[in-house]
Every structure is written in C-alpha cells, then in structure tokens.
Amino acid sequence: MLDWMDSLKGRSLMRLKSFTDEEMMNLVDLAAQLKSRRAAGVRGDLLHRRNIALIFEKSSTRTRNSTLVAVRDEGGNGEYLTRPDIHFGKKESVKDTARVLGRIYDGILFRGFRQRDCEELAKYSGVPVWNGLTDDYHPTQILADLLTMKESFGKLDSNTVVAYVGDGRNNVANSLMMGCAKCGVRYVCCAPRELRPDEAVLAEAQEVATKNGCDIRVCEDPAEGVKGANVLYTDVWVSMGEEAKTAERIKMLRPYQINMDLMRATGNLEGRLMFLHCLPAFHDFNTEVTKECGALEVTDEVFESKYSKVFDESENRMHTIKALIVSALCDKSRI
Ligand code: CP
Ligand code: NVA
Fold it and tell me: Model-level pTM?
C-alpha cells in the first residue's frame, strides 16, 4: 500500500509534466484521504519538525494559507518570505539563495514570475521545491481542481469534458490543459486567436491526451466550444504582472464571459455540470479592481449558483498541497 510514494520522495513539482499520470492521480487520492482524516479531527505529525520556506513574489490568499496550515496541521513550520524580506535576485542570485535556504529548510514553495527561477531553486537547493504559480504554470491549483471534479463526478476519464473559457495561454490554462490530458479528461480551450495556448505547450498536452484516449481542442467561438461540457472553468482576464494589458484584455475577452447563457449552451444544465475558477474571481463590483475596470469574467449569477464549486475547489488547495509536501518529505509507512 502507498508504494507509489517511494517515487515521489524528495521530488520537486515544477509543472504537472514533472510527474507521471499515475503519480499525479495518486496524489489526488492521497489528498482525499488526508481530507477525510482532517474532517475526522485528526491533526497528525506527518511533517513533524519539518521547516518549509514560502518564497512569494506575488500576492496570494489560497496558496499561502493552504501551505502554512497544511504544514502546521502535520506538526511542521512554514516561514513566509516575500521579496523585500530576503535578498532574492536583488542582492543575491537565485542560485545562491537556493543554496543557502536548502541548507536550512526541508522544502521550498515558490510563487513568482519566472519559471526559470523556480527551476533554479530546485536545481541548486538540494531540497524539494514546489511551484506555487509562475507566469507559465500553476500545477498545485490543478491538483485541487482534479480533486474537486473527482469528488463530484466519481472518476476522471473521457466521459468528462472541461471547457476553459478566457485567457487560454495563462499559467492556470497551461496546467489545466496538461492535467486533463494526463487523466484522460477531454479539454477544450475557448479563447480569441491572440490568447490561444502557446503551440509548444498545446502540442505537448495533445501528445499526452492522444496516449490517454482523450482530446485537446481550441475553439474561438465560446458558445460552440462549450457544447457538451461538464465543467466550465475560467480565470481572471489579466494575470498578476500583466496589469498594463487590462484595457486590451477586457475588449478581447468580453464575449468570453461565463454567464447563464454560456452555461445553458453546454446543454448540460440538467445533467453533469459545474463551474470552477481558481479564484480570486471578478464576479461582482465589491472589489477595487472591478469598481475601476467594470468588467467581470463570470456573472454573480453563475458564481453563486448551484453549479459553482469554487469554495470546495479552494478548500481542496490545502488538502492537495498537504499531499504533495507529505509525499515528498514523509515516509510512506507513517501514513
Ligand atoms: N488560486 C490561487 O492560487 O489563489 P491565490 O492567488 O490566492 O493563492
Ligand atoms: N492567472 C492568475 C491566477 C491567479 C491564481 C494569475 O496569475 O494572476
């Protein structure tokens, strides 16, 4: 039992492609197991005296708190380090930072801009490094998304169609596309031509999908693309670091808003259908940003509807991050 964990011991997660399909799905299952265990009131010691550094260059509510609580739940300690707190990249190279922190900590979770920095931390720290979002990928988000879908649909296979609508080339879209391909779920990206997935990232996912008997498609027309979908997924139209592109993105993506008409266009209102969003989401005018820009990627009606599983999804960030850290640092005999 849990023999698969041997292969994840000491491993970093740079992007979902770093793991085999089985390793990824086993992690999702371990997260479900840890979730039940926590619901039963167990706060264990699977990470007893383990110290985890959280290096964050960008803001975070979910990833930061999920990681800190996941580690504390299991008897470990997390240290939150923002760019101004440490010399990261400014007075000390990423490579040197990696070598210093790797002598102190048992693992590092990184949220930042460049995927290359995340990879450099993994290469030189000598400890597992987990990508908590870069400009290119957001793999830990997708572990939570897969758990959320599995909880509702029972299993993940080509009977499920995920339609991602919006900025089809951002970090979440890139990782979601690969995550679906790896578990055999069909994926359609509905995006304007300018925001289609990068060709190399798309080709990589398509290759995995073909092997797993599913398909990855790109469609410009959202109403056409979402036909038959069981999951409608969107993300903000402007990712962190791209704020200068706000006006252009709003213009481009307005027709891609997720509203009840688009939910209806799936043909699955009465069947298997859920709405997912990695969050934070613009669904009402109660944020400074939406008050200023006046645009929403999802209507409040959909966000607050019975189809919306966004808070289950957000909770699952904690269980999946816990599974990831535990599988890298804890002996399987203890689980
Ligand atoms: N979904 C997600 O990564 O949220 P945070 O930016 O709050 O961490
Ligand atoms: N694509 C978004 C995801 C936030 C969790 C961003 O990078 O800002």
Answer: 0.98
